[in-house]
Amino acid sequence: MAEPKLKNNKLLLNIQLNDGLTPINLSRLLKAIDQLYYLGIGVIITEGYLPRNFTHPENKNKSRITPDYIDRHQLFSLQNILSDILIGNPLTLYTLNRIRPMIRSEYEFKLKRINYNSPGGVDLLGLGKVVVAIKDFIIAYKESKRKDKLADKEIEKINLDLAHRTLELDQKKQAIELDQLLAADKLNSAKQKLLHQSQFRELKILQQKQEILIQRHELLLKKQELNKKNEDKRLTREFLNIQEEGIEVTDDVQTSITDAMTDIIDLSENSSIGEVSIRNSDDTKSD
């Protein structure tokens, strides 16, 4: 459905609460969403302060007009905090956490409603562009993890196939060794020697094929793990929407976002929470 129109730059993030959600899991949810919100608005404030294409020599000492998300008397402090970013250093979690207390009260993330029934819901009011980004991020991240699970199932099938092939190989080796032991008195026969040589050659070929399968499997596991990390980074950058500005973030920012999303996905997968939607603060129906 179409996104609600922004009114006073504010939107409500609605999260369905399902039966069985414990108080401690509700706390996990609110903490995770709160973390995403303040990371998002911190990046927006940073981008609003920095000049567009700030890495260009002509723009190094320029700055854009900062949005009114922070009090004007905080501008000097913000300039000091962001001094490293102006010379091209990555944005750190420490810097983002220092920006948070500067945010004006009207742009803080506020709990507007909580209905702890079955099903219930929670409404959180915040800056519209961040609320939309959080909603889209959660949906995209859930889809990414769904695909990861499908890939994991394929890996599991390969593991079972490898285990089956290994068992067959071991059984074949044991059968050859037993046959050789039982036919020890006939080993002088040229025909019998040729037979055993042929059996061992066949066994060696099977072992080589097995080794190739194991190597391919190991490469597949490494590739899947790398794909997961790259996808997490892509989704994180999309959430922060920092590609155009050229701002880089440190690993601790990535980790903080991933940890928050892990908590949200865990709660979603155990059915503690349901759909995530957005609406205007004066609406009674969600999108």
Give me the count of strands. 4
What is the first-to-last residue Cα distance? 7 Å
Biggest β-sheet description:
4 strands, antiparallel
Q: Average pLDDT value?
A: 78
Q: pLDDT under 50 segments (min length 5)? A: 1-7
Strand content: 5-15%
Instruction: Classify the helix fraction into a percent range.
Output: 55-70%
Output the number of helix runs.
7
Side by side, the strands of the main sheet go 2-3-1-4
Q: Specify the overall morphology.
A: elongated
- Name the assembly state: single chain
Radius of gyration: 29 Å
Class per helix and strand makeup: alpha+beta
| Domains (count) | 1
Secondary-structure element order, as H and E?
EHHHHEEHHHE
Features:
single chain; 287 residues; 7 helices
Describe the structure.
With 287 residues, the chain is α+β, with helices and mostly antiparallel strands. Helix content is 59%, strand content 10%. The radius of gyration is 29 Å and the shape is elongated. The termini are close together.
Outline the fold blueprint.
Elements: E1 10-17, H1 23-49, H2 75-81, H3 83-86, H4 93-99, E2 110-115, E3 120-127, H5 128-182, H6 190-240, H7 251-269, E4 273-279
Antiparallel strand pairs: 1-3, 1-4, 2-3
Helix pairs in contact: 1-4, 1-5, 1-7, 5-6
In short:
With 287 residues, this protein is α+β, with helices and mostly antiparallel strands.
